[in-house]
Amino acid sequence: MALIDRVESPPAERTSLVQFLIARPEFGPFVLLVLEIVVFNALSPAFLSALNISNLLAFVPELGMLALGMTMLMTAGEFDLSVGSVFGFTPIVMWTLYNEGVTGLEAAFIISLLLAVLIGAVNGFMVTRLKIPSFLVTLGMLLVVRGTALYITDGFPQSRWTTDSPLLGILVGDFRIGEIRIFNSLLWFIAFSIILGYILMLSRAGNWIQAAGGNPNSARARGVRVDRTKIMLFILTAVISAWAGITSSIRVATANPNSGTGYELEVIAMVVIGGTALTGGRGTIIGTLLGVFILRVMRNGINFTDVPGLAYNIFIGGIILGMMALHSWLERRHHAGT
Amino acid sequence: MMINELVRMHHINKYFGRVQALNDVSLSVRKQEIVGLLGDNGAGKSTLIKILSGALRADSGEITMHGKRVDIRNTTDAIKMGIETIYQDSALVPQLSIARNIFLGREPTRMFDLMDQQKMNDVASKLLKQVGISKNIPPTTPVSALSGGERQAVSIARALYFESELIILDEPTNNLGVEETQGVLRFVRNARDTGHSCILIAHNIYHVFQVVDRIVVLRRGKTVADDIDPKKTTIEAVEHVITGMSL
User: Fold this and answer.
1) Lowest mean pLDDT among A144-153, A218-227, B185-194
2) Which of A213, A218, A338 sits opposite B91 (nearest CB)?
3) If I label B184, which of A210, A291, B32, B176 is the partner at 20 to 30 A Cα–Cα?
4) Which of B93, B117, B138 is the closest to A281 by Cβ?
């Protein structure tokens, strides 16, 4: 009898801070990340060297931004397989426009982001208005967008022309903290995390996002504009993917029409490892940040061990299965008896 | 038109294919009146209620509120007009907290869309006590962790706070324990005193007899009685009206 239990032990009064932290869905991923860092550090001192940390932090924001968008979308009960193709396509558009002398770089940047808005809006429209599952809609969009990127470049990378536009510095300029090299993209990533974390947990829009994923019919009955909320999130996911792709193209000084291939699944893995539910209703930005680092640290750290790089996916798969089992166990234990 | 009339459904017809679920049914509810809607399985109670709450549309007939004709196209319309329906499996979002559920769609906000969670939690705590949950359940508890009766209480709290004029309870005591059932019935009595009207649908005639002012009986899609006073009749007599067997 859950009712009687509750009378005897009101959770608000008996739970200590430690118990509170352990009960958080982010606790499991946090322990795993700490464990990874401890193990890799024990195996190789080079793992925590300034150079390696710089490398790790250079790439984390790019996949991480995709994961932030995906977290918001998955909380609302949808997901987007086209993020990797948008990541590859939008920088192609930006650099092609600029290299061909069609527009200045800033205008090309804006046009690329507007294209992402359009892609997201089409995804959202087809999912909410035509009631086609997001799996199919965004799979189709993946192929259309990737195909367009390959078509307009003939499959060749667009190299980055020299430019004195301040945009490059704003997006990906770098500075040093001690010996660690930090790109501005990390600051953007932190800013996006804070803004989206705020929206998801504290704002009214966040309440609507969670309700849209948790019980769309009752949300609709309460006057929540579920379809509009989802369309906005598809647009957000596409735009943040474009931002990440453009960031990446500037950092590596080339825009490859194939870049971002396969990112969609890695990103979804990061998000669910962090504790966001694949079925919607529950999402956590902090969990996603942990999930991003868990997979990036694993990929990076494995280079310092005797494990062959080709075995990397075995560990990733193992982590996903292990974390899913943990989340499911915590969920069942949490709701035992109700 | 009766004085003090809140809602009237006039000559409602509803077909499902060739089956006529409602045949020229009329139903009225006065202000601060509790109406018990009874009938056997398939009598049309749920269909009638779904039309009033916006979940279904009638094929013909009209609905008036305060004597004025209204068009209830969907559940959002009904809620806006002050008609709140509480189903057995209450329409809550299990992952969200009690307070977030109560205010869903009407969250108080400050700058930058920031929800006023302090206010939401304070109001939710007070409401929970008001609907008879004396146990110390924090308003930040997710609904998924609540029992069936507690979930009903949250739905009821929501209807109370947003001052719905008419609260429809569809089998609110199904699957509830004795204590929780008494809580719901107590709420229905209180609702009248605080100016609300209710329609109560329940299989259990004993529960209906305890709280309602007037009993309406449907049988095979038709109204067979609409002015039974529970104080002047017996449960057995009403059972005969429901089943159609003469005394």
Assistant:
1) B185-194
2) A218
3) A210
4) B93
| Secondary structure of chain A as H, E, C letters | CHHHHHHHCCHHHHCCHHHHHHHCCCHHHHHHHHHHHHHHHHHCHHHHCHHHHHHHHHHHHHHHHHHHHHHHHHHCCCCCCCHHHHHHHHHHHHHHHHHCCCCCHHHHHHHHHHHHHHHHHHHHHHHHCCCCCHHHHHHHHHHHHHHHHHHHHCCCCEECCCCCCHHHHHHHCEEEECCEEEEHHHHHHHHHHHHHHHHHHHEHHHHHHHHHHHCHHHHHHCCCCHHHHHHHHHHHHHHHHHHHHHHHHHHCCEECCCCCCCHHHHHHHHHHHCCCCCCCCCCCHHHHHHHHHHHHHHHHHHHHCCCCHHHHHHHHHHHHHHHHHHHHHHHHHHCCCC
Binned at pLDDT 50, 70 and 90, residue A2 comes out as: very low
Domain A24-334, CATH = 1.10.3470
Q: Which of A114-118, B82-86, B182-186 has the lowest mean pLDDT?
A: B182-186
* Residue ranges of domains in chain A: 24-334
Q: Do B147 and A203 touch (CB under 8 A)?
A: no
Over pLDDT 90: what percentage of chain A? 61
pLDDT at residue number A131? 94
Number of A:B CB contacts under 8 A? 97
What domains appear along chain B, each with residue ranges and CATH number?
1-82+166-175+195-247 (3.40.50.300), 91-163 (no CATH)
Taking 60 as the threshold, does the pLDDT of residue B92 lie above it? yes
Query: In this complex, which of B105, B114, B138 lies closest to A222 when CB atoms are compared?
Result: B105
Q: In this complex, do B144 and A6 lie within 8 Å of one another by their Cβ atoms? A: no
Does any CB of chain B come closer than 8 Å to the CB of residue A4?
A: no
| Residue of A1, A3, A74 to mutate, testing the B interface (most B Cβ within 10 Å of its Cβ) | A3
A225 CB near a chain B CB, below 8 Å?
Answer: no
Cβ distance of A224 and B100 shorter than 8 Å: no
In the predicted structure, residue A337 carries a pLDDT above the cut 60: no
Predicted TM-score of the model (pTM): 0.84
Q: Which residue in A6, A196, A207, A284 has the most chain B C-beta atoms within 10 A of its own C-beta, making it the best mutation to test that interface?
A: A207
